[in-house]
Design brief:
The chain is mostly beta strands and 464 residues long. The chain has no helices and 37 strands. The strands form twelve sheets. Strands 1-6-12-9-10 form a five-stranded antiparallel sheet, with no helix packed on it. Strands 2-5-14-7-11 form a five-stranded antiparallel sheet, with no helix packed on it. It has a five-stranded mixed sheet with strand order 28-37-36-31-32, with no helix packed on it.
Length: 464
């Protein structure tokens, strides 16, 4: 098998996917949270408004702060989805404006996002309801990104006017036993620096659902867990695959479903041949793609013939990632040469030692003509005319092009290299199928003032 690779040699490996949200589960704390200012106990997280979200943890001892019996109601109960804690915010309130119910959790991203790249985001929520009599639920909660830190004074029911990148809206979240995932994809602008979780809808836009004896005023509270922003990049750019190894391509990504360019639908596959492999992952209604080049060194053509223009430096590049030793002692992946010859490089890869030879020939590229060797002037609209193309500079002079039949008759002649067009006739009569000879000659004025004479000839076949 021959497999041609055109790429920048890279030995990059698959990087462990990175969640750009630090302390995503609110488990890192400075001290055990035991008071209404518990947001200050969290590492990295802070409030985006004058409302004060709460951080809850199993180490808490005060009423309402000791997980799982943590929250604003006497009957609050929720186990962490991960770790030892979670956050708690109000997202809806119809009571007095000074109660601080417009609450938002905010964190600085651990790294900048790449412009135009697609990212996946998600977080988990669970309602904190006042069981067993007054059950109040709502729908609207989301995650927004901002270029700068948000620090707003908001009177209830005022909300932040940011547009969420992901949001639950329309379907009331009723599961207070488990955790509801809110997720989706977005394309980055490259300027995002902060993530904020909360309700970005007004009271009028937020759907309220009541059960039991809940009466006005109404409030809705949510536990928040496991906030995530992550780029889909599970595959290495290039993978050197050794026959003796299990060369697994693993694209496992959260809750996705998979389709590979091979047709396989598992999260990981075992490539059997060199080539380009692409995986598409469907998750939360969006499609994410990643591609890798797999190289089995025993399938790569390591003896290469190249023809390049003379008087120009030529770069030779090894076709396998690894460490290199060229015949001139160079140790990089590429060398620059100016002379004809055979150049050898020894490539040490994870699969062993391989040797590549490149046979380099140099030709004069100042003026090249291409004359087709077959044409068919039969009126079908395909190859009806013999057309000659060239890469010659305008400095050519005394150009001559002639076609001669097998009896030595010149049946066609042109003196303009840009206007060569023969329809297969001679003296207005169609010639029969056969083999003809062409001859072209010209003079080339070189930049140094010298005049070079060149001539080219060959056969062409006319087919009726």
């Amino acid at each position: 098998m021959f497999f041609t690779i055109t790429l920048t040699i890279s030995t990059s490996c698959s990087l462990t996917a990175q969640n750009l949200i630090p302390n995503p589960g609110f488990d890192e704390i400075i001290s055990c949270p035991n008071d209404p200012n518990s947001i200050e106990s969290s590492v990295h997280w802070q409030s985006a408004s004058d409302g004060k979200p709460q951080i809850l943890n199993t180490c808490g001892t005060a009423f309402g702060y000791s997980v799982p019996n943590a929250g604003s109601n006497q009957h609050s109960y929720q186990q962490p989805r991960s770790g030892n804690g979670y956050a708690h915010i109000y997202t809806y309130g119809t009571i007095a404006p000074d109660e601080g119910l417009s609450q938002y959790l905010q964190v600085k991203l651990s790294d900048t996002l790449e412009k135009h790249e697609t990212y996946y985001a998600e977080f988990y929520v669970s309602p904190d309801v006042q069981a067993p009599h007054a059950l109040e639920y709502s729908d609207a909660i989301g995650l927004a990104l901002s270029d700068t830190l948000i620090d707003r004074n908001l009177d209830n029911p005022e909300t932040l006017d940011h547009t969420p990148i992901i949001e639950n809206f329309g379907d009331v979240i009723l599961d207070s036993v488990g955790w509801t995932r809110i997720g989706g994809c977005f394309k980055a602008t490259g300027t995002e620096a902060y993530a904020t979780v909360g309700n970005f809808r007004s009271l009028a836009e937020t759907t309220l659902f009541l059960e039991g004896s809940a009466t006005f005023p109404h409030v809705v509270q949510f536990y928040i867990e496991d906030v995530l922003i992550e780029k889909f990049d599970p595959l290495p750019d290039t993978m050197i695959a050794c026959r003796a190894d299990q060369n697994i391509l693993d694209a496992t990504f959260h809750h996705g479903t998979y389709i590979w360019s091979t047709g396989e639908t598992s999260s990981s596959i075992l490539p059997l041949a060199s080539g380009m492999y692409t995986v598409e992952v469907m998750i939360e209604g969006c499609s994410l793609r990643d591609t890798t080049v797999v190289i089995f060194p025993d399938e790569i053509t390591l003896d290469i013939d190249r023809e390049e223009c003379m008087d120009e430096p030529v770069t030779l590049t090894a076709t396998l990632p690894g460490s290199y030793l060229w015949s001139d002692g160079t140790t990089g992946p590429s060398i620059m040469v100016k002379e004809e010859g055979v150049y050898n490089v020894e490539i040490t890869t994870s699969c062993g030692l391989f040797s590549q030879n490149t046979s380099l020939s140099l030709v004069d590229c100042a003026c090249n003509f291409f004359v087709p060797n077959v044409f068919s002037p039969n009126g079908d609209g395909l190859n009806d005319l013999l057309a000659v193309s060239s890469s010659c500079r305008p400095e050519i002079t005394n150009f001559q092009f002639a076609i001669i039949d097998r009896w030595g008759n010149m049946v066609y002649q042109a003196i303009d290299p840009q206007r060569i067009s023969w329809d297969g006739t001679f003296k207005n009569e169609m010639l029969d199928s056969g083999v003809f000879t062409y001859v072209l000659s010209y003079e080339l004025n070189s930049p140094g003032g010298n005049i070079d004479y060149a001539q080219k000839s060959g056969d062409l076949t006319l087919i009726r």
